[in-house]
Amino acid sequence: MFSPKEDLDFVKEEKLAELERRLGYSFKDKGLLKRALIHRSFAFERDLKENYEVLEFLGDAVIGLIVSEELIKRFPDKREGELSQIRAFLVSEPSLSKLAKSIGLGEFLYLGKGEKRSGGKEKSSILCDVFESVFGALYLDAGFEKAREIFKKNFLPLMWEILERAPTYKDFKSYLQEITQREYKTLPQYRIVKAVGPEHDKEFTVECRVGELTTTGKGKTKKAAEQKAAEEMLKALGVVDGSGES
Ligand code: MN
């Protein structure tokens, strides 16, 4: 797959060993791991034939398979549609770049000068890609079983944590609060504007206000109506996709 003769000796042994230590795996073919760290901009500057992109392509599939399997184990009752939505969220750039950051993957990257200067080591798009390429390399060097074991040991707990905090799958109110605090230095205000129906079958309408914007939500409980109003507010703010698809 790669030109085997290409000289990648600029990658220092100590650096490689440190990354292997963080992954908990020692590569048989060090060249694979080296390749996984080379960004297009660096390859271009050094006139190298290959960068990490083919490994990234492969790693994308490897991670997709690992995550799919973990999802069906964790959510045996969820249907295919929802499982794919959750998977799409978990293998997206924001999630994978968090996993990459958890082992400081950015430090090990080889970037071209321009990319380096513009803070490429911190860019979530690059971190996501290099995370995938490392898993492509792990798969080729160690096989699927081992790659899965490494993922489960090092990244799965954080991945579940990310999912727990995910807006779309859980708590719109908390997510909205986080956003408004951060972006607008204010908290969303909720108030019940209507409660109709008999005691055992009430329907609440709750209004959510953030600055000039108001949205409403209906629900069987006050809490459910607030969640709905918060979800509508997230859509109004453009944070959550309003089309109902992820
Ligand atoms: Mn990618």
Tell me what the structure shows.
By secondary structure, the chain is mainly α. The protein has helices spanning 13-23, 30-36, 40-46, 53-74, 80-90, 93-102, 113-117, 124-142, 144-154, 156-164, 172-184, 222-236, and strands spanning 189-196, 203-210, 213-219. It folds into 2 domains: 13-170, Orthogonal Bundle (Ribonuclease iii, N-terminal Endonuclease Domain, Chain A), CATH 1.10.1520; 172-236, Double Stranded RNA Binding Domain (2-Layer Sandwich), CATH 3.30.160. It has 12 helices and 3 strands. A 3-stranded antiparallel sheet has the order 1-2-3. The mean pLDDT is 90. Manganese (II) ion binds next to helix 4 and helix 8. Manganese (II) ion (MN) is lined by residues 56, 60, 128-129, 132.
Q: What bound compounds does this protein have? A: manganese (II) ion
Beta-strand content estimate: 5-15%
- Total of helices: 12
CATH class of the largest domain: Mainly Alpha
First-last Cα distance: 34 Å
- CATH homologous superfamily identity of the largest domain: Ribonuclease III domain
Q: Tell me the strand order in the biggest sheet.
A: 1-2-3
Give the structural class.
Answer: mainly alpha
Radius of gyration: 23 Å
Mean pLDDT: 90
What CATH architecture of the largest domain would you give? Orthogonal Bundle
**CATH fold title of the largest domain:** Ribonuclease iii, N-terminal Endonuclease Domain, Chain A
Portion of residues in helices? Answer: 55-70%
